[in-house]
Design brief:
single chain, about 140 residues, alpha+beta, 7-stranded mixed sheet, 7 strands, about 15% helix, about 50% strand, globular
């Protein structure tokens, strides 16, 4: 079976949300919807394939620059997911990232959303990405 190794960016932000007369800080992650390929329309953690000689952290910083025109800093690996799709085995390094500069622009994706702990499971995640959702929920508390 073909082996594909990728890095996925769990881009985290904290924003102030008004709740009537008070406001609270809410953590959110950035999710993207595929605009092409066999899994078009599925939701995923943005990222892409490791190139020869790249670390997972270098890969994710390059991929987010290429796909979303934004500079991110790879903070730490949240987890590594292994999943067998029908035609390939995927290993995905899920890396917690923060935005350094730029505005997230969709250059390859169909849509995007910021998701909180309450809305994290409201999109149709691709099967491999579903395997990291529990760990993402933990950081969104």
């Amino acid at each position: 079976m073909k082996q594909v190794t990728v890095s996925g960016a769990i881009i985290l932000r904290t924003r102030e949300v008004s709740t009537g007369s008070t406001s609270v800080l809410q953590k959110e992650i950035f999710a993207t919807q595929r605009g092409y390929g066999d899994y078009k329309d599925g939701w995923e953690i943005p990222g892409g394939k490791l190139e020869l000689g790249e670390t997972p952290q270098q890969c994710i910083e390059r991929e987010i620059r290429e796909e979303l025109a934004t500079e991110v800093k790879a903070e730490r690996v949240l987890g590594v997911v292994d999943y067998d799709y029908p035609t390939f085995h995927l290993t995905m390094h899920c890396i917690l990232c923060t935005i350094v500069s730029g505005e997230l622009k969709l250059l390859e994706h169909e849509a995007a959303r910021w998701l909180s702990k309450e809305t994290l499971r409201s999109v149709d995640w691709l099967p491999a990405d579903q395997l990291i959702l529990d760990k993402i929920e933990e950081i969104l508390k």
